[in-house]
Design a protein that fits this description.
The structure holds two protein chains of two kinds. By secondary structure, chain A is α+β, with helices and mostly antiparallel strands. Chain A folds into three domains: about 110 residues, Butyryl-Coa Dehydrogenase, subunit A, domain 1 (Orthogonal Bundle), CATH 1.10.540; about 100 residues, Butyryl-CoA Dehydrogenase, subunit A, domain 2 (Beta Barrel), CATH 2.40.110; about 150 residues, Butyryl-CoA Dehydrogenase, subunit A, domain 3 (Up-down Bundle), CATH 1.20.140.10. Chain A is about 50% helix and about 15% strand. In chain A, helix 9 packs antiparallel against helix 10. Chain B: Its cofactor is FAD.
């Protein structure tokens, strides 16, 4: 057994950590994250030049990584730095393109010359297995898309949207230029930084070749699996920082003449935070290990459930142990707490994944 | 054992309900219900309406303009107001300073200050916490040095809620640096327009500048603005804190927020069924509902004891802890109910008159900011950890 990342992955993590610390420290991150574009195009370009995007994809499709632990390493660093650059959409859209054999488009993504957002979730709720409300109909040499997509992360940054839509043959994915006629974005800031958008599609006409997946279901599942792992690892990275900041505070903040970390009531609470984060790390390791295999879905739900539950504990305890200062915009911690909290709601919260875990167990 | 209110109390409840139905402006209750931002004018409007009715200063004796209510009546009024989505009044003058002046202030101070609290002329804020004195409030350092007919005040206060609107601040200041921590503190009233005062906003994690830092540099305060005796301020501060904690359980407003959450859970669907039918979400709802019902009775038990002359001790700490835990659980579950739509944040949409395109289900936009903002409940007014210290001190005594 060896629980160390491989040397290559460790180097990738170190490089990424140094780059983000230098180019996107928290003040710069906040300026970009809560600013007009919701991310830093400079930082994104720099990361692409470092080859970080390539780490998310396998050699067979032009990357140099693509395994579960590659995704874990990259997104843990993203979480540690609270990076808001469009990694999630890139990963999810890229994985869907990869399983569909669209390597030409993927190359542009890996090179950082094209940003693709993953537009799958919809404003209307639907039962598992129900068709998507967004429809694609064949019309001569083209497809025509109609519908709406919800909370598409960094959609405004994207050159293209990878849109899921129901066809007569089942769900499929379509690469839609962001400036195509009939595509409308209603962008907004997210409470935890970065921007998302509601996307409406009205008689959007795309070429036949824009349909990237014959089996949309598999491509969507591949995207979601990668997204779940990524978000879980991101939360883990953010939780590590929240924990360190809280430990520092317990050691330095004095009340009643002593550092507050002298109080046993608080010692036990930070101890719980620490052990729950270690449990969460194990959950992410389990998911990264299972990634791509037969038991992946269950391990991914286990991880997303765990980081959701642990995340709320860590975010709330980190703020509480800091007291009022933990609620201030000025302190980096508050931004970590927000990100950790909001990750729970992305791609299904802890309750949904607990139930999915149970259902997958029954099916097995 | 009889958990019912008396017929007189029920009649009073009807009277309160009729008043709220008649006088609570719809634009204010709408804002409270939907978690929208309250402006200064909003807060002043409700203050004025309650004052006109004579129901503003519910804790004050009748001779100073209070309604002469019993503890139970006050509780009924607070519950009904909260359930009708009435705004909470700004507490600093009415609920905090008022009772202290009535008990410890001079006649001159009462005559000069109390009417101006009632009619809204003066907006008060609280100068207790300092950067180095939070849970350990008695370690405060802001100094007041006597110079003829004045004190000269130097130092800094923090977490001053709504201090940006304040005309006056009541402060704990150190007048005897040689005495033991609690024994050298005085209670001073300071005009916010005095030269040497600077207010700087503190932006909270939801982007809201509701609290402030207040800096004092050689601020001259007339000795006439000392409350009670010099170096006895800690006694008054503790008395004030018991008032800060009245209605701390916030049963009424938690019930209102919970009812709202239940209706959201019936409207929103996930995986094709209403959230309320999702077994895990339903379990979360049920746990809160049970907790809330238990707390409502605990709260009434404390009120009944107080009505019989008991002084609130560890009970108010208990209610503060439980009340804030339940309220925070409601805000967390409300955020959870909106799923991914809790993430979009459009601050303008939380202001009156926003005409932009809404994002997600109704009220999704206020769920996360409210959740984050309400983390303060377990921190302020004596953190929940300090409350547990108080309880354990009373029961273990070591």
């Amino acid at each position: 057994m060896d629980f160390q990342h491989s040397e290559d992955r460790q180097m990738l993590a170190d490089t990424l950590r140094r780059f983000l610390a230098e180019r996107a420290p928290i003040e710069a991150r906040n300026k970009a994250a809560y600013g007009e574009t919701g991310y830093s195009p400079d930082v994104w370009r720099g990361l692409a030049e470092l080859g970080v995007i390539g780490a998310l994809f396998g050699e067979d499709v032009g990357g140099f990584g693509g395994g579960g632990f590659d995704i874990m390493v990259v997104f843990e660093e993203i979480g540690r730095a609270l990076a808001v650059e469009p990694f999630l959409g890139t990963l999810m859209a890229g994985r869907a393109l990869a399983v569909s054999g669209r390597t030409a488009e993927l190359e542009e993504i890996i090179a950082g010359t094209t940003i693709v957002a993953f537009a799958h979730a919809e404003p209307q709720d639907r039962a598992t297995g129900d068709p998507l409300a967004t429809r694609a109909t064949a019309d001569g040499d083209s497809w025509v898309l109609n519908g709406a997509k919800a909370v598409v992360v960094q959609a405004e940054a994207a050159d293209r949207l990878l849109v899921s839509a129901q066809t007569d043959a089942g769900p499929s994915l379509f690469l839609v230029p962001a400036d195509a006629a009939g595509v409308q974005l209603h962008g907004y800031a997210n409470v935890d930084g970065g921007r998302s958008a509601e996307v409406s599609l009205k008689d959007v006409r795309v070429e036949v070749s824009a349909r990237v997946a014959d089996d949309g279901t598999a491509a969507i599942a591949a995207a979601e699996a990668a997204g779940l792992l990524a978000l879980s690892a991101e939360a883990l990275g953010a939780m590590e920082i929240a924990k360190s900041a809280t430990i520092d505070y317990l050691q330095t903040r004095k009340q009643f003449g002593v550092p507050i970390g002298k109080f046993q009531a608080l010692q036990h609470r930070i101890a719980t935070v620490l052990l729950e984060i270690e449990q969460a790390r194990s959950a992410v390791i389990n998911a990264a290990d299972a990634f791509g295999g037969e038991t992946a879905d269950r391990a991914l739900s286990a991880a997303k459930y765990t980081i959701g539950a642990t995340g709320q504990l860590v975010a709330e305890e980190a703020i509480q142990l800091h007291g009022g200062i933990g609620m201030t915009w000025e302190l980096p911690l508050s931004h970590y707490a927000k990100r950790i909290t909001m990750i729970d709601g992305q791609l299904g919260d802890q309750d949904e994944h607990l139930q999915r875990y149970i259902a997958l167990g029954r099916a097995a | 054992m009889d958990l019912r209110f008396t017929p007189e109390e029920e009649a009073f409840r009807d009277e309160v309900r009729a008043f709220l139905a008649d006088k609570l402006p719809a634009h204010l209750s709408r804002k409270v219900k939907h978690g929208l931002a309250m402006t200064k004018a909003d807060m002043e409007e409700w203050h004025g309406i309650l004052h006109a009715k004579g129901w503003l200063a519910s804790h004050w004796p009748e001779r100073h303009g209070g309604p002469g209510w019993t503890v139970v009546q006050r509780s009924i009024f607070e519950d009904e107001s909260a359930r009708a989505n009435a705004p909470r009044i700004v507490p600093f003058g009415v609920n905090m300073l008022g009772p202290v002046l009535i008990k410890y202030g001079s006649d001159e101070q009462c005559q000069r200050i109390l009417p101006r609290i009632l009619d809204g002329t003066d907006w008060w804020c609280q100068g207790y916490s300092e950067p180095g004195a939070g849970s350990d409030l008695a370690s405060l350092k802001t100094s007041a040095v006597r110079d003829g007919d004045h004190y000269v005040v130097n130092g800094q206060k923090t977490w001053t809620t709504l201090g940006q609107y304040a005309d006056w601040i009541f402060c704990l200041v150190r007048t005897d640096p040689t005495a033991k921590a609690q024994e050298g503190i005085s209670f001073l009233l300071i005009d916010m327009k005095s030269p040497g005062i600077e207010v700087r906003p503190i932006v909270l994690l939801d982007g809201d500048p509701e609290v402030n830092e207040v800096f004092f540099t050689d601020v001259r305060v007339p000795v006439a603005n000392l409350v009670g005796e010099e170096n006895k301020g800690w006694t008054y501060a503790k008395y004030l804190l018991t008032y800060e904690r009245t209605n701390i359980a916030g049963v009424g407003s938690s019930i209102a927020a919970f009812d709202r959450l239940k209706s959201i859970a019936g409207l929103l669907t996930r995986g094709g069924r209403p959230l309320a039918d999702d077994p895990l979400f339903a379990a979360r709802l049920a746990r809160i509902e049970i907790d809330l019902a238990n707390m409502a009775t605990t709260n009434m038990r404390v009120i009944a004891a107080a009505a019989n002359g008991g002084a609130p001790g560890a009970e108010s700490s208990m209610l503060k802890i439980k009340g804030t835990e339940i309220r925070q659980a409601i805000t967390a579950l409300t955020r959870r109910a909106y799923g991914p739509y809790a993430q979009p944040f459009i601050p303008e949409a939380l202001e009156d008159g926003y005409n932009g395109e809404p994002v997600g289900p109704e009220d999704a936009g206020s769920a996360a900011p409210t959740y984050f903002n309400y983390r303060k409940l377990s921190i302020f007014g004596g953190s929940n950890e300090v409350q547990k210290n108080i309880i354990s001190k009373m029961i273990v005594g070591l």
